[in-house]
Specification:
single chain, 8 helices
Amino acid sequence: MIRLVCVFAAFGALTAALLPFQALAVSLALPLRRRIPVFYHRLLCAMLGVRVREIGRRIDAHPLLIVANHSSWLDITVISAVAPVVFVAKQEIARWPLIGLLAKLQRTVFVDRTRRHKTREVNAEIASRLTGGDPVVLFGEGTASDGNRVLAFRSALIGAARDALAEAEHTGRVWIQPLSIAYTRLHGLPLCRHERPRVAWYGRMAMGPHLARVARHGQIDVTVIWGEPVAFDQQSDRKQIARALETEVRRRTIGALRGLADDSAPHSFLPQNRL
């Protein structure tokens, strides 16, 4: 209980301290609007006891669309800790207390799946982020899994890149890079299949108790692996690219869960300070 109180107190203090600076940076379009979230989420990882092992590198080329698997709200913090990204998320998140505000300040693009006539406006916003130099993250499955598997990628989500190209002037292609996220250890011990949902957040799980449980126990190891980027242009087959990305992410995720992550690729650990 003491740890839980300390974590939430530290989270509140950190958020209160950085929120005004991020709001100002976003309103003035300052470069800090990209750097502050990375710093913020790295500190969150340290507070929660989440140790991130990064294998491979994000490419420097732009525009860049990152397509990842998804199993927990922790994915947002983990990805944001390793790269200055913006996310594409469902509209409901914008209305969540505090989390909605934090998502807006990270310049998340919200999608209302019930209003398809707004697709053009959403894709125009994605195009603006891409051409402005922001890597944009899409969760290819369109939902969260239990962390033991990678679900089928939805080609329609990746097809949004083509619509974004149509909205962006002087942009002939978008780079798409797969990203694998695997939660591998808890308290230093390998996470077995039936324990992995203790980290994963999916289905109808209540977020509050899950967040409190993670904050109370912490000591989670996660491996993120950058795959080989592919070029996407107006002639690309979105279904074929979606299958290739899905195969790549599934292969790397399963390998990491089995302790077979590619150690030949460049990798690093995020520094961690536990409470």
